[in-house]
Write a structure and sequence with these properties.
alpha/beta, globular, 44% helix, 6 strands, three-stranded mixed β-sheet, Rossmann fold, 8 helices, 18% strand
């Protein structure tokens, strides 16, 4: 980050071009309506995530989405950042995804990771279920981590429904 030179205006212009997965809103609605917590965790920055969601008309509060990410803000035109969710990560991550999973998982719940990048690899190693594309798909295949491939979040929804029903069935017993 110390080498990054960007103004707040330049960053805002760049972020206008970013599109979220077309299935994200459907996933968010399903999670909310099913009572399943939806957590977005990222080695990226909170203000960037907030702007991309807002530009895509994703109402994070309405959907009950919790976001864990590094913090970025501009103070007098100068970027300032910190890492509130690093938790002393042994891997050096700005956001320690395995620790967030451990702290967020309710007893008897199933952790599901849906990811695509390098920063997801440690979470993939500890999640109960993994959906992977891109770099993470290759990593899981090479590391023999069980996963389901996907190309769009809409591909994941039928699987999430089945996982959710399975958890509910176990709780009923």
């Amino acid at each position: 980050m110390a080498c990054t030179r960007v103004s707040e205006i330049e960053l805002a212009q760049f972020l206008r071009e970013i599109q979220i997965d077309s299935g994200f809103l459907e996933l968010g609605l399903w999670a909310r309506d099913s009572g399943v917590p939806l957590i977005v965790f990222s080695d990226g920055f909170d203000s960037i995530i907030d702007r991309v969601f807002a530009a895509s008309r994703v109402d994070v509060r309405d959907l009950g989405i919790r976001i864990f990410a590094s913090h970025l803000e501009f103070k007098s035109g100068v970027p300032s950042w910190n890492f509130p969710y690093a938790f002393g990560c042994a891997h050096g991550c700005g956001t320690c995804k395995p620790e967030i999973i451990r702290r967020s998982l309710a007893p008897g719940a199933v952790s599901v990771l849906i990811g695509d990048g390098r920063s997801d690899r440690f979470a993939a190693e500890c999640a109960d279920e993994v959906f992977a594309k891109g770099w993470l798909h290759t990593y899981c295949a090479d590391a023999a981590i069980p996963y389901q491939p996907f190309s769009n979040l809409s591909d994941v929804l039928p699987h999430l429904g089945a996982i959710h029903e399975s958890v509910l069935s176990r709780k009923a017993l």
